[in-house]
From TrEMBL:
GO cellular component assignments: bacterial-type flagellum basal body; plasma membrane
Keywords attached to this entry: Bacterial flagellum, Cell membrane, Cell projection, Chemotaxis, Cilium, Flagellar rotation, Flagellum, Membrane
Annotated ranges, domain Flagellar motor switch protein FliN-like C-terminal: 253-323
Principal place of residence: membrane
Organism lineage: Bacteria, Bacillati, Bacillota, Bacilli, Bacillales
Protein name in UniProt: Flagellar motor switch protein FliM
Organism: Bacillus canaveralius
């Protein structure tokens, strides 16, 4: 009963039971001292911590955003994809949870072992294909009668879409997704043993007026080598490292070779629109810059120096005579 707060009525009832002999204080102490037994289902082994599941959720939230951008550009219609859930379940339970006939894309992800499965609800798949073929994005479900052309269009589209997983996973592993198999019947697909633990990330997907789910099934064997990188400690640690002297030297050399536009401003003048329209060849515009004052020298659009105009080797030139304060000069003359 530790950790529970009893009401006054419950306390009175407990004292009454002890005084009448209905309850024995020694038996209560014995029950508290005994170890609590918790049922554990070995068929549903939890191999990932909540922390690691959260990390996988964060990674695939980024993947969902990338998919939204990709499909929006390809279909030219409203597309919204977001993570609905992330769970670890036996592979057999995942297969039973998806439709009997659906779109299954199996990907190799070298250098990691094993394969990743992307299951796409037929309504979403057909709406996507209809839109790509010039339709309005209407959905029909005849997945059991896919033609060779429809199969090719779908597999090519989902292969290009899954390439974005490479960018989403870039912080934990450099993978190269490759479409290895395309199937419509889950019963013909046996990636791992039925009791193998898999992580299933479900994505809510809306294409036009059609909604459905995209499920990404990742077996434990795929994630096993990178499990340490799914911890909070790995994500929180800084990625900044001290640059090597050779790297710094290369950066300095590239900066020194960069070109900057430098202009000397002779002066400015304000005139009316009427005077501007009346300008003709030979007209003189009076500037606001006195001859005896130095000119402003700009680097890009930022005033950096003052200089004196002149000539050198029969060419117009300007001599830098001072740096402007607040121009972030830092000796760059």
């Amino acid at each position: 009963m530790s950790g529970e707060v009893l009401s006054q009525n419950e306390i009175d009832a407990l004292l009454s039971a002890l005084s009448t002999g209905e309850m024995d204080a020694d038996e209560l102490k014995k029950e508290q001292s005994e170890k609590k037994v918790k049922v554990y289902d070995f068929k549903r082994a939890l191999r990932f911590s909540k922390d690691q599941i959260r990390s996988l959720t964060r990674i695939h939230e980024n993947f969902a955003r990338l998919l939204t951008t990709f499909f929006s550009a390809q279909l030219r219609t409203y597309v919204q994809i977001s993570v609905a859930s992330a769970d670890q379940i036996p592979y057999e339970e995942f297969i039973r949870s998806i439709p009997k006939m659906t779109i299954l894309n199996v990907f190799d992800v070298p250098p990691l072992e094993g394969r990743i499965l992307m299951e796409v609800n037929p309504n979403i798949a057909y709406a996507l294909m209809d839109r790509m073929m010039g339709g309005k994005g209407s959905s029909i479900n005849k997945v059991e009668n896919l033609t060779e052309i429809e199969t090719k269009i779908m597999s090519n589209t989902f292969e290009r879409a899954f390439e974005h997983l490479q960018e989403a996973w870039s912080n934990i592993s450099e993978i190269d997704p490759i479409l290895a198999d395309f199937e419509v019947n889950p019963q013909f697909l046996q990636m791992v043993s039925p009791n193998e633990t898999v992580v299933v990330i479900s994505l809510n997907t809306t294409i036009g007026e059609t909604s459905g789910m995209i499920n990404i099934c990742i077996p434990h064997v795929v994630l096993e080598p990178i499990i340490p990188k799914l911890s909070v400690h790995y994500w929180m640690q800084t990625d900044k490292k001290d640059r090597e002297p050779q790297e710094i030297a290369v950066l300095e050399q590239r900066i020194q070779e960069a070109y900057l536009p430098i202009t000397a401003e002779l002066g400015i003048s304000d005139i009316s629109i009427q005077d501007f329209l009346m300008l003709d060849v030979g007209d003189v515009i009076e500037l606001n810059q006195p001859i005896e004052q130095p000119l402003t020298i700009k680097v890009g659009e930022i005033p950096k120096y003052r200089g004196q105009p002149g000539r050198t080797n029969k060419k117009l030139a300007i001599q830098v005579i001072e740096a402007l304060k607040g121009g972030d000069d830092d000796g760059e003359r």
